[in-house]
Structure formats: C-alpha cells, structure tokens
Amino acid sequence: MRTALLALGLAVIASGCSQPEFYEMEPGSVSFDAKGATKVVRAVAKNRRGQVFPRERPTSWTSADEKIVTVDAEGKITAVGPGQTRVVAKRGKLVGEIVVDVNSVEGLEVEPAELSFVQDADPVRLAVRVLDARGKPMQGRTVKARCLDEKICNVDRALQVWPYNPGETTVEVSCEGHTRQVKVVVAAARGGKRR
Predict the structure, then answer these.
(1) Are 100 and 68 in contact (CB under 8 A)?
(2) In angstroms, what CA-CA distances link 32 with 26, 29, 78, 124, 143?
(3) What domains are defined for the chain?
(4) Could you tell me the pTM of the whole model?
(5) C-beta contacts of 177-182 below 8 A and 24+ residues apart
(6) pLDDT for the residue numbered 12
C-alpha cells in the first residue's frame, strides 16, 4: 500500500515537473542598424530542467513600443524607429521577452554647403557626419555621393569633389535614406583649360 502511494506521489511530482515554465527566446537579443530591417525570433517553451515543449507555441506577440519595433503573429520583428524596447511572447502563464535595439541613422551633416572651383583645380574633400537619434556621430555607415552633372564635376570614393568643366551643379550626399546637397560652381580657368 505504502509502495503504491509512494509511486503515485512520484508520478504526480514528475507530472508537475514536466510542464513548461517559461519561454526561452532565440536569439537572446536583437539589434537593428536600419529602419525596415526584420528578424524572426523564436520562443521555445522549457522548464527549469531544460526540457523542451515544441507544441507550446506563443498565442500572442507584442511590442512594448510600436514606434520602435512591430512584431507579427509569427515572431517577425520589424524596425520602425530609433530606441530600445521589449518584445513579449505569451501563452497563458508562459512568458518570454527579448530586448530590441534600433540604431538607425537619423541625421546627416555635410560641410561645406557650397564649393567654388576654378576649372581643373585640386579636389576638395567633403566632411560628412552620420548622426543617431541623439545627434551623436555614428561609425561604420556607408556614405554615397554623386555629382548630378558629371561633365562639371565628379566625386570619388574618398568623397573628394573634382572640378572638370565650367558650370553649376549639385553634389548629392546620401546615407540610409538621408540626403544632403552641396552646390558646386566651377569657373573657367584663365587662359583656357589646364593640361
């Protein structure tokens, strides 16, 4: 009799331990570098012993701040704006959350705002600063620049503006959806074009 009761008690304990207790998020955190970027995360139901319960999928996904990220019913997170927030997966008492950072470009500064050259003069390099939401410089971002009329000037990969022929045009500088324009004026060289 005692053996039967002991076995029943152990069975009840074992049954209680075989229930999921939380969601483990995969990956553990997410960071985006641009608006519109996406990432699918998984919420894996587990107990404290590490047992996985694949059928216990979340019934809801929510973002704590949809101005920063949104999330759909499949756990797909989309970056909306700069900042940090949490995405929460739930199913009844099961809860899991993940911290999400969005470090998007929010500003672009270009100096000088206007360039004046004599035909075929030495190039001038543009000073470009890519800024985050707090106005702080960001490193490692790709900046592109082009002259709208390449008969008048050109821009190389080092962001140097090279004057060619007389006239007025604009250099367009861009980075991740942000654009600035620099006016370029090239005057004719005295005595004609230098060789």
Answers:
(1) yes
(2) 16, 10, 9, 34, 18
(3) 20-102 (2.60.40.1080), 107-187 (2.60.40.1080)
(4) 0.71
(5) 177/35, 177/105, 178/105, 178/106, 178/107, 178/108, 179/108, 180/108, 180/109, 180/110, 182/110, 182/112, 182/113, 182/114, 182/115, 182/126
(6) 45
Gap between the terminal Cα atoms of the chain: 109
Q: pLDDT per residue over 56-82, tens digit each?
A: 999 999 999 999 999 999 999 999 999
Q: Where are the beta strands (DSSP E) in 60-142?
A: 60-63, 69-71, 76-79, 83-91, 94-102, 107-111, 114-118, 124-125, 127-131
Q: What is the pLDDT of residues 94-135, one digit of tens each?
A: 999 999 999 999 999 999 999 999 998 999 999 999 999 999
The answer on pLDDT for 5 being more than 60 is no
Q: Which residues contact 122 (CB under 8 A, 6 or more apart)?
A: none
Q: Which helix (H) or strand (E) holds 147?
A: strand 144-147
CA–CA distance from 55 to each of 35, 50, 52, 138 (Å)?
33, 15, 9, 43
Q: How far apart are CA 180 and CA 146, in angstroms?
A: 11
Identify whether the C-beta of residue 116 lies closer than 8 Å to the C-beta of residue 108. Answer: no
Tokens of 104: 């998007």
pLDDT greater at residue 191 or residue 182:
182
